[in-house]
Amino acid sequence: MFEKxxxxxxxxxxKISNSGFTDKDLEPLLWDLQIQLISNDVSVEVAEKVxxxxxxxxxxxxxxxxxDKSDVVRTALRESLEAVMDCNNKLNIFEKIxxxxxxxxxxxxxxxxxxxxxxxxxxxxxxxxxxxxxYSVVLASGDTYRAGAIEQLEEHGRRLGVRVIRHKYGSDxxxxxFDAVEHARAQGIDVVLIDTAGRMQTNRNxxxxxxxxxxxxDPNFTIMILDSLIGNDATEQAMTFNDYIGxxxxxxxxxxxxxxxGSSLSVPYLTGKPVLYVGVGQEYDDLEPFxxxxxxxxxxxx
Length: 302
Description:
This protein is an alpha/beta fold. The chain has 2 domains: 83 residues, Four Helix Bundle (Hemerythrin (Met), subunit A) (Up-down Bundle); 198 residues, P-loop containing nucleotide triphosphate hydrolases (Rossmann fold, 3-Layer(aba) Sandwich), CATH 3.40.50. The protein has an 8-stranded mixed beta sheet with strand order 3-2-4-1-5-6-7-8, with helices on both faces. α3 packs across α4. It is elongated, with a radius of gyration of 21 Å. The protein starts with a helix and ends with a helix.
């Protein structure tokens, strides 16, 4: 995971550790850091921010004049990376669900993203997490366009033992979500997870349809699913969806296969929305909480 980025950062730490911490010494090395980040799919704006954070932490540091300064440099870089990722990182969706249950209302979560990001599988993984926490779940098959989408969600529902609310292909996706919420309210089900059709962020008509789903269903929470393997495209998708639809948090999929890791840094900083989880495999347990500090430590681990 993130082998290329980790290798590049390790080299930068070594170079800075062998230099002084003056503006003159740091300028070319921080430029190297910026290029290294950009080459690993970190957006230019975020790469610049990391370098600014890094410079502020190193300038005037009481580091030893001679000897090993790598610990000081590594700490400064870790804190700089953490700073750009730590966007409301303590948001806890389970606390929101718990409060909604106390209020006697189902908590509805709408999932958005383009086709191929692993949206439906991620919904199944999140269902599994909710079940482990003791919550009852119903799924809404709001992807009424893609062939096989309803059957795919129903198969996950069968495996997990949860009901899937569905209509015919081509029917109104907003109605599916609305019916699922009403079903949950009538049956005392805690959480409604609403699948939606994949939308290309460049297709205005499809984005308008997704806006309608959100307006009709009025979900308590909206999650954007992003494929970490597509790099800067994931960041562009997140920014466009946030502008048109609005979302509360993101989940990054296929992180276990991502050698670069740039979207993990860029998405929280540029959208102002936290990453809740990262997908690290195909099994239902392969959904890990995202923690900025732990993530930054992994990037700099030997």
